[in-house]
Structures are given as C-alpha cells and as structure tokens.
Design a protein that fits this description.
elongated; alpha+beta; 3-stranded antiparallel β-sheet
C-alpha cells in the first residue's frame, strides 16, 4: 500500500515522502498513530500544494537574507564604536556581539540575531574588525566594525 508520511518514521520514511509499505503496517500502526495517510489523488494534490508553499517560503526567506547581506556589505555600512583605550590600543572592557547587534540596529536600522554572529571572543582592540554573520543556509555576510578612542 502506498502512503504519504506526515511525520518522520525512523527506518521507514521522512515527512512528505511517498512510499510503499505493507498493508497491515499501514492500517495498524501508521494510520492509527497519524504518522501517515493513504496516497490517494486528493492527498497527493494536498502534498504537492504544501511542498510548493514550503518552497516559496524558503525562497522568500533566502531572498530576504540576500537583501540584508547586500545592506551589511555595502561600503557605507561600518558600525562605529567609541571606547576608552590604553596606550597599546587595547580597550578597557570589550565589545560583545550583543553590543554590535544593538549598534547595527541603532545606526543602520538592520536587525540581526546576535546568535548568528560568528564572534569567537569580544572585540578588545582599536581599529577595524570584520565579523562574519550567518544569515541563512549558504548566505554569509561580513560586518565591518570600527573602534575609535574616546576623546
């Protein structure tokens, strides 16, 4: 019997997959636990529509990420910080990913989740620093940060 899986079933199939399974397994386990439904024409059409909607949502989200990447990598987009620093140009304190995201939103009105920044340790020196941002699967951008001494 052909079924459409509505949930992932370990060893049998993934959500949205159409597969042939034994009749008893389908009737007594998959259908009773709502893990699958029969692969009739109505259900197959519904599955095709759902997959088309998911693909459109994925493409829209990727396009948004590409737009944000273009904004972040624009030459004018440099997040500026002023901070107290010692003679060896090391900061008193540091600039964390949270501060970077807040300044980015304040200066350029661009929202980015701080967990998407790939900052292994906070910025602790004056000058320019590049920080990578994973915006979406396969879409990475670089934020430029400029730290200048206070005063």
């Amino acid at each position: 019997m052909k079924v459409i899986f509505t949930e992932d079933v370990r060893g049998r199939g993934k959500r949205g997959q159409v597969k042939e399974v034994p009749d008893g397994y389908a009737q007594n386990f998959l259908f009773k636990k709502n893990l699958a439904k029969p692969a009739n024409s109505g259900n197959l059409n519904t599955l095709a529509r759902i997959q088309a909607n998911e693909k459109a949502a994925y493409e829209a989200e990727k396009a948004d990420a590409e737009k944000v990447k273009a904004q972040l990598e624009d030459d004018k987009t440099v997040v500026k910080f002023t901070s107290k620093a010692g003679a060896d140009s090391r900061l008193f304190g540091s600039i964390s990913s949270k501060k970077i995201v807040e300044e980015l939103e304040k200066q350029f009105k661009i929202k980015v989740d701080k967990r998407k920044l790939e900052l292994s340790e906070p910025v602790k020196t004056l000058g320019y620093t590049n920080v990578k941002v994973k915006l979406f699967k396969g879409v990475e951008a670089t934020i430029r940060i400029h730290v200048v001494p206070e005063g």
